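Hi C.,

You asked whether I'd gotten around to modeling the 75-residue construct. I have! Everything is below, sequence then structure, no commentary in between.
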Amino acid sequence: MKSNKLLDAKGLTCPMPVVKTKKAMNELETGQVLEIHATDKGAKSDLTAWARSGGHKLLEHEADNDVLKFWIKKG
């Protein structure tokens, strides 16, 4: 999936993937897509909830070995 920005949050534990995602999302325009790579297993539920509460849309997520990948469209 095409993204406008890539955030490498691998090796970070809660709450840092969400903190870094929020900061990166602030640099994007509405409608742009942020791709996040994380290794924290809790990132799936954390980023899903964060996107919903912030008015953003989780477009897709997948697991690539130990790396969780997310694509969030800025609302």
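If it helps when you're writing up: The radius of gyration is 11 Å.

Thanks,
B.
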